[in-house]
Amino acid sequence: MGRLVLALMVVACTLPISTVVNYVVPDPYMDEIFHVPQAQRYCKGDFNTWDPMITTLPGLYYASLAYIAPLFPGMQWTGKARSFQEACSTAILHVGSTTAVMAMYLACIKRSYWLSALLGSLAIIFRQTNIVWVAFVACMGVLDYLDKFSRKTNLLTKADTLVESEIDTSVLNKRFVHAQLKNRRNVNSDKIANNAVSEEKLHQSRDSEWSGVLGEFQFLAYRIWCEKWGILTNFFPFLLVAFAFIAFVIHNGSIVVGAKEAHPVSPHFAQILYFGLASAVAMAPVHFNLSKVAVLCQSFREERTKFLVLFLAALISALVSVQFFSLAHPYLLADNRHYPFYIWRKVIQAHWLMKYLLTPLYVYSWWSIFNTLGKTRQKVWIIIFFFATAGVVVPAPLIEFRYYTIPFYFIILHAEIDDRGWILIGVPYIIVNLFAIALFLFKPFRWDHESGLQRFMW
């Protein structure tokens, strides 16, 4: 019932907003001047003509076809569209990429690995960089698979111990006892029997001998090796997706389809810092509060040397990133329709010292994100997530908030937030979005060198 109410609330919000947007801005805007004609070609059955300015694969247009097909009779009857081609111009689905990635993650959590890999393929067809999230989800699936196997091993080991203690050795000789236990283990799993003792010992020594991040990775590597065939069998669909993507890149010569010269892969390491701060600000009640500061101070008091070493290492890395790997794409400098244009000019470039003064805030933001995720996720999960996020945002030379959407969703999905926190996050979110929508719709402006109205947007 709760899911139905939530769905109805979302529909109740999006329908009037989309109606107003389509009424005020009926013509294609910005990148839609490329996407709408391409979608209309697909609606006409022309799958061979491709606009060289489009950088992504045609998942958007296939989704348009699937979305419009059942709605077209009603649109034609109400006069919203006179032809199927015209209807396609109203069905550009910008949320397809995020939806496919989240659905892939959900399927993997439910251990439907073939479905998850299929949804991952769909996500890549929407946006090629989603291959990183396919790899991330596969890694999370492996971690979950190993935890499930480990729990099963522990339960069977304890059960075997209980059986041994309950059998009356005065009546049954030891040889019979061992034979019964051996048969029982064989019925459950030969592999579990061979690894049970070693697995239990490793669990007992995990906190003592293999403490820390390196120990977790050593422990994980051992478990992967022990279960390599089971992992390969279960996660083979993800390998097929990876091989297909590699073949595509080799054949295409690049990860992007069109406009390759405008979208080169760049070492934009400052981008990961921008993402951390943007995510922390979007969840400000979680990351910027007195309790979080208290946790920071407590960490400093308990492990002062370790804290200072890690902080200085992170700070130096941030300083190096903003000095040598902070890129200003020509689109960022020239397009005053996007908010990053003003953030770059009015904040980051407000003074030559500003980009350095922001580095402690970048470091704190990532520390707070790690601390928040650490309450629900293990260290290996957090590290893999960090590198997956870097793999998506660092190669992108252009600063755009849409690149941050999927990793931000993963953060907020796994953050422990109470009802008060959701309210404190949700109310500013609604206000900011209403302001952005109003600015887009009702505060247009003109360029001297180009006809038509221009509008502010993310």
Q: Could you list some keywords that capture this structure?
A:
two-stranded antiparallel ribbon; mainly alpha; globular; 71% helix
Please state the overall shape, judged from the principal axes of the Cα atoms: globular
* Percent range for β-strand residues: under 5%
Give the radius of gyration.
27 Å
Helix content: over 70%
Largest sheet: 2 strands, antiparallel
Could you list the spans in which at least 5 consecutive residues all have pLDDT below 50? 168-174, 187-210
Your description of this structure?
By secondary structure, this protein is an all-alpha fold. Helix content is 71%, strand content 2%. The protein has helices spanning 2-24, 32-43, 59-78, 84-88, 96-109, 113-126, 131-166, 174-188, 190-205, 213-226, 228-234, 236-252, 270-282, 284-287, 290-302, 304-324, 330-334, 339-348, 354-357, 359-373, 379-393, 405-413, 419-442, and strands at 445-447, 450-454. A two-stranded antiparallel sheet has the order 1-2. The longest helix is centred in the first third of the chain and has 36 residues, at 131-166. It is globular and about 70 Å long.
